[in-house]
């Protein structure tokens, strides 16, 4: 602060600021003349006086709404694993937003298709997802339809490529560990020795 911009005292300057505010609100022209004269210290005093009082009037009504991560977590968990308070908050959020309720219904029906391996119901799910006004699920359904046969096979068959993918991941890990240290014969021996386990 410079010498001219001293902080106003709470006692005497407060009355001066209130009088200035009253004159400004009555529209007697005094405040406009002060501003035109570019004598802004009174305006700074008034602003400095009113700033904390404006902040005090703002109050948050009720608890804060749940965040995006919380709601996403509630969506992705099984309903049996939600606590009573989480279930209550989710129910309130779904009651306030019909799009959210539709997304919740579609996410849980897709999770049921995944967990029970009933890929034959996927076409009905895609039709109901397209009926809702949810662009994110529309693009997801489009992705499913692009590779429809593989998706349905993956959702109905008990066979998967998990063991093969795990083996490829293990070989890549060994290769990363040996980078710059050894040649191909040692890499081959390590891969074959770990495959024998």
Describe it.
With 197 residues, the protein is mostly helical. Helices cover 71% and strands 0% of the residues. The protein has 11 helices and no strands. Helix 1 (12-26) packs across helix 3 and helix 10 (162-177) runs antiparallel to helix 11. Residues 11-16 have low confidence and may be disordered.
Seen as an oligomer or otherwise, the chain set is: single chain
Q: How much of the sequence is in beta strands?
A: under 5%
Instruction: Catalogue the unreliable spans.
Output: 11-16
The biggest beta sheet reads: none
Could you name the key traits of this structure?
197 residues, single chain, 11 helices, mainly alpha
Provide a concise account of the structure shown.
The chain is an all-alpha fold and 197 residues long. It is built from 11 helices and no strands.
């Amino acid at each position: 602060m410079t010498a001219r911009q001293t902080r106003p005292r709470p006692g005497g300057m407060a009355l001066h600021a209130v009088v200035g505010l009253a004159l400004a609100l009555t529209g007697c022209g005094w405040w406009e003349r002060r501003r035109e004269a570019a004598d802004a210290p009174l305006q700074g005093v008034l602003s400095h006086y009113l700033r904390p009082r404006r902040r005090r009037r703002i109050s948050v009504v009720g608890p804060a709404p749940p965040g995006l991560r919380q709601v996403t977590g509630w969506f992705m968990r099984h309903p049996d694993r939600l606590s009573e308070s989480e279930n209550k908050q989710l129910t309130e959020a779904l009651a306030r937003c019909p799009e959210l309720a539709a997304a919740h219904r579609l996410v849980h029906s897709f999770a049921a298709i995944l967990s029970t391996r009933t890929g034959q119901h996927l076409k009905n799910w895609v039709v109901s997802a397209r009926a809702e006004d949810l662009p994110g699920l529309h693009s997801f359904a489009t992705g499913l339809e692009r590779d429809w046969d593989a998706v349905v096979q993956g959702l109905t068959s008990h066979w998967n490529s998990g063991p093969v993918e795990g083996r490829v991941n293990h070989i890549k890990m060994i290769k990363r560990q040996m980078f710059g240290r050894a040649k191909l014969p040692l890499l081959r021996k390590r891969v074959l020795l770990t495959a024998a386990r």
